Amino acid sequence: MLAVGFTLIFGVARVLNLSHGAFYALGAYFTYTYNGLLKIPLLPAALLAVTTVAVFGVAMERVLVRPLRHSGLAVLMITLAMSLLIEQVLLLTFGSEYQNVQSLVSEKVMVFGVDIGGQRLLALGVSVALISGLWLFIHNTRLGNAILAVSQDPEAAQYMGININRVFASVMGLSAALAATAGVLVAPFLTVQPSMGLVPMTKAFSIVILGGLGSIRGSLLAAAVLGYSETLVSYLVSSSLTELVSLVAILLALILRPAGLFGKHVAF
């Protein structure tokens, strides 16, 4: 989900949003705040957290990214600065201690003789549903068609009457919502701390490079390849080496196929 959101914003706006991992962390922390501190029931708290991050993403696009969109380097720097700022704000607000987020599904499920946490299966199911829904939305709605048009040729889309600024803001909101949802879903079984977005962001970036910048199906295939590769390395070699898989994948992709598996000039 992180990789799909990351490649979505690049495929449409042609910007690399380095604060994408911070959206992931904000999803987890807003859920903790709404549920753990403000005592809002867990499901409404999770939905409110995703909505809050989506609105924050739209505001960030309008205030910070849009004025600098003409310069890819400037966008990289401002999104990196926002990522570092968000991390420091979380650190000052909540401290460096790990926070606990309740599970939406606490029961375990037996699958082929193996106990699997219900929250993990929920994360898988919601991810599949949201990514499938995103695909249908892009290809079967008016706004989705506008997103496709802008991803292929922003200038021509603007001549056809499409408000590209509205499209860019919408895509930023969708991207932030996907990242926040990922953070909400994994928070109960992974650590919630200020720098939690760094490693997932590195993996998401690796997936996007391997799958091809701007290609959703490339991201899906690359995510499966990297996920199973990490599992094999952990099982056959050592679990301490799994973090190197993403870096090796980036190097090999840049050397052997810089465009990625499905890299094209169009986004989808």
Q: Summed up, what is this model?
A:
With 268 residues, the chain is mainly alpha-helical.
Mean pLDDT: 88
Low-confidence stretches: none
Largest sheet data = 2 strands, antiparallel
What is the radius of gyration computed over CA atoms, rounded to a whole number of angstroms?
A: 18 Å
- The ordered string of helix (H) and strand (E) elements is HHHHEEHHHHHHH
Question: What's the arrangement of strands in the largest beta sheet?
Answer: 1-2
- Please state the structural category: mainly alpha
- Assign a percent range to the helix content: over 70%
Amino-to-carboxy terminus distance: 16 Å
Count of individual beta strands: 2
Describe this structure in words.
The protein has helices at residues 2-13, 20-37, 42-65, 72-94, 118-140, 142-152, 154-159, 164-186, 198-211, 216-236, 242-256, and strands at 108-111, 114-117. With 268 residues, it is an all-alpha fold. It has a domain at 2-105 and 118-195. The chain has a two-stranded antiparallel sheet. A hairpin with a 2-residue loop joins strand 1 and strand 2 (114-117). The relative contact order is 0.18.
